[in-house]
Amino acid sequence: PPERKRFYQNVSISQGEGGFEINLDHRKLKTPQAKLFTVPNEALAIAVATEWDSQKDTIKFYTMHLTTLCNTALDNPTQRNKVQLICAAVKFLETDTVCYRVEEPAALAELQKNEWDPIIAWAEKRYNVAIGSSTSITGPNIPASTKDTFISHLASYNMWALQGIEYVITQLKSLILSMGLIDRHITVEKAVLLSRLEEEYQIQRWGSVEWAHDYDLCELRARAAAGTLFVHLCSESSTVKHKLLQD
């Protein structure tokens, strides 16, 4: 359900045999498949606990992106392994948002060139690959060596982090923007703006639907930010020594 009445007073974390657990009063949080909700490190546990502690009279599950990502990592509803996750992520290169260009109108074509070329150039230099762009409906011809390089790079992440990376990619419709965001080359705001470049161009030209545009923009920023934070926290092995949740 999208919302449920808040049934707990206090949120805390504790360390169990399998990792860190979330406690809602005296109940231990479970996944949708009734598995014990256990995360690999304290930093991620605190972030998830903060989501639950921030809920008011009702629990708005659709706002709890970190909890959802943890549930996905724990339950693995699609039953994919690491290789399948990596292949799914790299496949986005074939339809990457920043690689598809228009020829008309000229103003939009110029905007795409000015805004998207620098992020492609960064990725090509960062990973020592060739990517390019195309105005063809079939998109650019991505070399096999480029795909192999990204496969190798993504293989350095653990399964949890890969779930987060794929989540960010599906939000931005771009592997290149996602890696720029996760590598801290660009901000969440910039990544979202670049992913919505054509839409933003049309809004500047024709105006936006009252409130709907702002809502979509904020939602996309929230999801991209949560996914990026999830990747970083899942790649973190150290323990947080100070308590962030205060009564």
TrEMBL record:
Swiss-Prot/TrEMBL GO biological process terms: mitochondrial proton-transporting ATP synthase complex assembly
Which locations, inside or outside the cell, does it occupy? Mitochondrion inner membrane
Chain segments annotated as coiled-coil in the UniProt record: none
Q: Where is the signal peptide?
A: none
Stored Gene3D superfamilies: ATP12 ATPase, ATP12-like
How the protein assembles, per its UniProt entry? Answer: Interacts with ATP5F1B; involved in the assembly of the F1 component of the mitochondrial ATP synthase (ATPase). Interacts with FMC1.
What is the annotated role of this protein in its UniProt record?
Answer: Plays a role in the assembly of the F1 component of the mitochondrial ATP synthase (ATPase).
Q: What is this protein called?
A: ATP synthase mitochondrial F1 complex assembly factor 2
Q: Which organism is it from?
A: Casuarius casuarius
Which taxonomic lineage is given here?
Eukaryota, Metazoa, Chordata, Craniata, Vertebrata
